[in-house]
Amino acid sequence: MIARALCTQFLQRKCIVLVPNTTWAGNEADVLGVTMDLRLIDIEIKISRSDLKADAGKMKWWRSEQYLWGDAHGPARPRMPREWPRKVWKHYYALPADLWKPELLACLPTPRSGVLLLKQGRGFDSVGNPLLDVHCERRSQPCKDADKLTAEQALDVARLANLRMWDAYGRLHKREPAEVAT
Description:
Layout: H1 2-11, E1 15-22, E2 29-35, E3 40-45, H2 49-54, H3 66-69, E4 88-96, E5 114-124, E6 130-138, H4 151-175, H5 177-181
Parallel strand pairs: 3-4, 4-5
Antiparallel strand pairs: 1-2, 2-3, 5-6
């Protein structure tokens, strides 16, 4: 429900394609968007404070594995943090508004990430799910060095989004075959 609200309310007018649960950019993203000017927006959905705090330990926020474990070329070196995940132009965290406290900003792996807060809205969407309101608590700072996607890369992301859509239809059909068939 959170990903759907983000896609329909926050990213809908900014992105030409949105993909849930992907590692296309090299690291896991709960929602990956391709903007109209072919840049990537990565959104991590968090459902607990501990989940948010643990994100700073993910490899997407560090330069390379050699910094942690070393390799054949030498011993491990101190970890070097990243300000943005690889290939990403903007990065956001999305979480329920009732979990948010301003002091959690200090737990984020970078001050460049934005924060999106969601709370129960009024009414229901067209398929009966409760509406969620999205509020941008803090805007993401863009990575000026993030490359634009090539046409081929944008088509690859669109292909992945298309496959995810058909997978979702398949799961829906498996759960509710009589309703889908009518």
